[in-house]
């Protein structure tokens, strides 16, 4: 299966989401790989630092390009034996290629108005291309006006979204350069919800 973390906006939690979901999948015994498509190489640096900290990640992070992403799509799309999480940059042709290759796209977004505007644009682009996606609100502080506003804008725009959100957690920032501990900061629920979405989708035929 191929899951991309994608948003035309930077700094919304794409890399964190790809790494946390990859960890959740690996802990369940799946064969997992992260593809780093971002020239900033955040996911690759995360893995490199973890090696240097003697805390190596439990999956490999591979630098990927247009051709490797297309190849992965041919090999692993709709294939439940291998889970590839693609960490996308917020722009460029590679986003289109990743969208095309993916079974599902997670669109992480912060609750800020600038994030939501770009999230709606990203979702509309994916809808046009008939790619399944779900918007995932992250860095959320419960009971705040920005959260309530973001949620209603996402609903009003008729976007697909995850029922669960990821809270803003200072501890999550410290995992850059380390593997996750027992606590996946709410990404456990997101992983469960993602599998449920894939199971309920008749076109995807995920039976795991
Ligand atoms: N739920 C959260 N709570 C607190 N901090 C978070 C949370 N999610 C992500 N962050 C932090 O926010 C910053 C941006 O996250 P991340 O790098 O995952 O975003 P990105 O969309 O991949 O950014 P870029 O567009 O630069 O690739 C990082 O410092 C990360 O540690
Ligand atoms: Mg990133």
UniProtKB/TrEMBL annotation:
Residue ranges occupied by any CobQ/CobB/MinD/ParA nucleotide binding domain in the UniProt entry: 3-172
Gene3D superfamilies tied to this protein: P-loop containing nucleotide triphosphate hydrolases (3.40.50.300)
Protein name (database record): ParA family protein
Q: Which InterPro entries match?
A: CobQ/CobB/MinD/ParA_Nub-bd_dom, DNA_Partitioning_ATPase, P-loop_NTPase
Lineage at the top is:
Bacteria, Bacillati, Bacillota, Clostridia, Eubacteriales
